[in-house]
Amino acid sequence: MKKILPILGTLLFLAPFQTSFAAAEKIDGIAAIVNSDAILESDIETRFRIIRDRVPNGIYSADIRRQILTSMIDEYIQSNYANRAGIRVSASDVDRAILSVATKLGTDINGFKNILNQQGIEYNRYRTQIENEILMTNVKRQVIRERIAITEQEIEDFLTSSQSLAQSKDEVRLRHLLVRSKDVNQAKAKIETIAADIQSEDDFIRLAISQSDGSAAVQGGDLGWRPINQLPALFVRELSSSKGPFYGPIQSNAGFHLLWLVDKRVSDVELQKQTKARHILIKPNAIRSDRQAQEFAVTLYKRLQKHEDFATLAKEYSEDEGSALKGGDLDWVAPGTMVPQFEAAMNETPVGQYSRPFRSNFGWHIVQVDGRRNADVSDKVKRANAEKALIAQKQDLVLSNWLDELKTQAFIDIK
């Protein structure tokens, strides 16, 4: 049976659901009340089905149930915040996300529904989960924009530090265990007891599931691959201080941390091949079928063949809001930035020419290549990358504190 591929990098994983829940009763009841919303036992079980491929050993235990419930409570609180802030997710965004998964599996929406059904997952619940994941991502982006401001001095300090762009391609895969408490001494005693019990990665996984207050606890603390220069500075210093693979305890404003270094990969510094491109995007919608969108893209392609100006046509007809007003200009595009279909067409198009219409998850494109270069070493790009790394270093703590604020304002009753 096929596995559902991740599309948002958080909880969107499906795997064959072949075993029953260990020691789980089949009585649906209320697991928790968050403000006026109820989280049911069946909601927790459905979430487990969706993330089962990420759960160590794929077993539904009391600790896994507790961690899933904690995550769902956090999501409900953030969803309420989104409603108050007027943050919404369009149906088309959800459609594109689901279509992306279906396409990667080599099927259409109906085939995808069949795969979900075989794994015991209702399509409507899966769609709601996708919508919620997109909403959470959008909410967090807004909070980060509002609460993190990077100064010019911070950028200057970063560019001259050992954590700078020289490490931008070096990545580590970490497991993370977090203990939080208003009582610092209590939290310190707890983390030291946990640390004393860790002799192997399996120990770390087991204790992360049962003891961690971190967002990745249900996955055994697995943070996945992350660029070193986007980790909190405290983590980087600790990773540099000894050989590991076990590090900590590390104290921060968020609590006490333990780390397990699963793997590390160091990329040789090499020139990056970038492409200067612009495009026209034609989307199918409620009144224009995919076939009609394709036909209109072909019409524009024929007009280009008659030497009409690409930028002028992009301004008038392109439905990519981010580039249309700039004549479809995407500026310099780095490898891996665009969806595979777009990148393939762009790479095959010679400089000074444009592609035939092609399809991606977003609609029908025509791409024009204006130039190619081996690397962008401009100060502007360096500073933008430095700002991105500094934001990544700060965002976990900022989001954690923000969530704590929301919790103090919410009514939470765990049954």
UniProtKB/TrEMBL annotation:
Q: Name one GO molecular function term.
A: peptidyl-prolyl cis-trans isomerase activity
Which domain of life, per UniProt? Bacteria
Signal peptide (from-to):
1-22
- The record's EC number reads 5.2.1.8
Which keywords does this Swiss-Prot/TrEMBL entry list?
Chaperone, Isomerase, Periplasm, Repeat, Rotamase, Signal
The catalysed reaction is:
[protein]-peptidylproline (omega=180) = [protein]-peptidylproline (omega=0)
Where is this gene product found? Periplasm
Q: Where is the PpiC domain?
A: 169-263, 272-371
Query: Which InterPro entries would you find in this protein's record?
Result: OMP_Chaperone_SurA, PPIase_dom_sf, PPIase_PpiC, PPIase_SurA, SurA_N, Trigger_fact/SurA_dom_sf
Q: What is its main location?
A: periplasm
**PANTHER family listed in its UniProt record:** CHAPERONE SURA (PTHR47637)
- UniProt function note: Chaperone involved in the correct folding and assembly of outer membrane proteins. Recognizes specific patterns of aromatic residues and the orientation of their side chains, which are found more frequently in integral outer membrane proteins. May act in both early periplasmic and late outer membrane-associated steps of protein maturation.
Please provide the record's free-text comment about the domains of this protein.
Answer: The PPIase activity resides only in the second parvulin domain. The N-terminal region and the C-terminal tail are necessary and sufficient for the chaperone activity of SurA. The PPIase activity is dispensable for SurA to function as a chaperone. The N-terminal region and the C-terminal tail are also required for porin recognition.
Q: What is this protein called?
A: Chaperone SurA
What organism does the record attribute this protein to?
Answer: Marinomonas phaeophyticola
